[in-house]
Specification:
about 25% helix, nine-stranded mixed β-sheet, 17 helices, hydrolase, adenine deaminase, Metal_Hydrolase, alpha/beta, Amidohydro-rel, about 575 residues, 29 strands, EC 3.5.4.2
Length: about 575
């Protein structure tokens, strides 16, 4: 396959034509397939010819040239398009390659990815190069273009400048603007983001909202301003309201919102009969949540809820491709499409028996092929985290009266600190911990207290965060320092320390936020870490998402950011960061 990722050259197109003319043999023929005919909304019997990475023929005929052709008789089995994940956050401990390998074995071969981590970590030109070069892998990667950091950064304006956004939008690999977490600013008159939305429209690309709890009035305004789709419906009624307003509705099943079955049940009760403008997403769930499946798990839930199987599979493939204007490449079993195909034992079993991605066997008769060579992240500046500076106990000074209290995994509110934060240790008879955000370059810090994370966490440090800065949490300042030093020694990761000893750790040597390990290994490591945190009193669904969202200002009510403790509603810094 050429490096141009599905932009076939004239020479390639002529070879595809030559296969039909009987001058070249196809690479693979799936004989006697019953396939999902998305155009006619039915199951159809046919032979499917594949040449290299592309479907070249679907019909009754067999090729006249078969020298070197692999002919696979799949009579009695079903072929559906490779599943598409339209809202991937491919940096949740895993990386795009390891996520691609794991998810594709379960049928998900295309990913529309968040570019935020690349935007924050790399110059725009290097980020764009990675976004293109990842498509040398057997999987298909498209990308979003973020408009803001969803935090308060010291260099926000220069990062998300009009010039940088235009460079992103000009890329054929960038498929949409968003997700639009800064929509309240837009409604309140932020013309900078509105201008970026208009630039996205000029580039002929979609805009995805992020509109949790939005009223009909708010949704209508956002539709008028350019939002096409939203994935934040939390009930069947909210999903139907989005459909009524003409929005494509992305139903979510994730580690912090595992409620797809209830939403589908409610939609059916309200009277949903057509699902052409409904799509599925797992919204960047953490590794352990994917243990039971990825998009295939969502299809399985839909089938259990009595959704017509054709609708269920189209919500995971064709509907997404059509929404993004990519149905000429993806989401159909038809000539000209990329050879992303899932072979099912039965319609009721969406986890495929065999998977083809760009014409390569990813899984064959239940056996997953070995992953290819690791993607060369270090060539793009995404190597181990080098912390060429030290913390000392002098940095562990706490004087703020405004602490942060966790309401759930991702929501934090202010609370008034009453205990003495000058002590070296806090008691275990309450759930308040020391809490710090420290610049990854060691130039500044923000110190406060965190209530609700756990009663018994002595020292905890993480280089995994939404901004790439260091999070420290714990009852003991010395154990927090020991946890930080272990993260520094590992060159990135998450560490839990007690009485000076490491209890659990997860190594993240790609930029401090990603691991080169397989998703299968990460599942076990994440589960082990979560188990130890739960033993010490972590009460919510997902501690990894808690780490990710402590600095995220698109959520209420108070956040720890590079600028300091930030009041989301009032849009003010309550206590500024301190230079070290």
């Amino acid at each position: 396959m050429s490096n141009q990722f599905l932009f076939w050259s004239k020479a390639e197109l002529r070879r595809h034509q030559a296969v039909i003319m009987g001058e070249l043999a196809p690479s693979i023929v799936l004989q006697n397939a019953t396939y999902l005919n998305a155009a006619r909304h039915c199951w159809t019997k046919a032979n499917i010819w594949i040449y290299e990475n592309r479907i070249v023929y679907v019909g009754d005929k067999m090729p006249s040239q078969t020298n070197g052709t692999e002919i696979v008789n799949i009579d009695g089995k079903y072929v559906v398009p490779g599943y598409i994940e339209p809202h991937a956050h491919p940096f949740q401990l895993y990386n795009p390659q390891t996520l691609g390998h794991y998810a594709s074995a379960r049928g998900t071969t295309t990913f529309m990815c968040d570019n935020l981590m690349l935007f924050l970590s790399l110059p725009v030109t290097k980020a764009l190069t990675i976004m293109e070069d990842l498509n040398r892998l057997p999987f298909t990667y498209y990308w979003w273009c973020r408009y803001d950091s969803q935090s308060e950064l010291l260099n926000e304006d220069s990062l998300f400048s009009l010039s940088n956004i235009k460079k992103m939008l000009a890329s054929p690999y960038v498929i949409q603007g968003g997700e639009l977490t800064g929509w309240p600013k837009v409604l309140q008159g932020d013309d900078h983001i509105l201008h970026l939305m208009r630039e996205t429209r000029k580039a002929g690309k979609r805009i995805e909202g992020h509109l949790p709890g939005a009223s009909e009035k708010t949704l209508t305004q956002m539709a008028l301003l350019g939002v096409d789709c939203d994935h934040e419906a939390m009930t069947g009624e909210e999903a139907m309201m989005r459909l009524n307003l003409g929005l494509t509705t992305s139903l979510r099943y994730s580690s912090i919102r595992p409620d797809l079955a209830q939403i589908l049940k409610e939609m059916k009760e309200i009277g949903a009969a057509h699902f052409d403008r409904v799509i599925f997403t797992t919204d960047g769930s953490t590794p352990a949540f994917y243990e039971e499946g990825v998009t295939d798990k969502m299809i399985s839930i839909a089938l259990q809820e009595g959704i017509d199987p054709i609708d269920a599979y189209k919500m995971a493939s064709y509907n997404i491709a059509r929404y993004y204007g990519k149905e000429h490449i993806l989401g159909m079993v038809a000539p000209g499409r990329a050879a992303h195909l899932n072979i099912l034992e039965s319609v009721q079993q969406p986890n495929p028996e065999s998977v083809l991605a760009k014409g390569q066997w990813i899984k064959r008769d239940g056996e997953v092929m070995e992953a290819g060579a690791p993607f060369p992240w270090s060539d793009y500046g995404m190597g181990p985290l080098e912390l060429n500076w030290d913390l000392s106990l002098k940095d562990f000074q706490f004087s703020s009266l405004a602490g942060m209290e966790m309401v759930n995994s991702v929501i934090t509110k202010p609370y008034h600190i009453q205990l003495n934060p000058m002590n070296e240790m806090l008691d275990d008879d309450h759930d308040e911990c020391f809490f710090m955000l420290v610049d990854k370059k060691g130039k500044w810090r923000v110190n406060t207290l965190l209530k609700g994370f756990a009663r018994g966490v002595s020292g905890f440090a993480s280089s995994y965060s939404s901004t790439g800065d260091l999070l420290l949490i714990g009852k003991s300042k010395r154990d927090m320092l020991a946890a930080f030093n272990r993260v520094k020694e590992m060159k990135g990761g998450i560490v839990l320390v007690e009485d000076g000893e490491v209890i659990s750790e997860l190594q993240l040597t790609l930029g401090g936020g990603m691991s080169p390990s397989s998703v299968e290994d990460l599942i076990q490591e994440e589960k082990a870490l979560t188990k130890e945190l739960r033993k010490r009193g972590y009460p919510f669904e997902d501690p990894i998402y808690s780490l990710l969202f402590f600095s995220s200002t698109h959520l209420p009510y108070i956040r720890i950011t590079q600028l300091g403790i930030y009041d989301v509603k009032k849009k003010v810094i309550l206590f500024p960061s301190i230079m070290r």
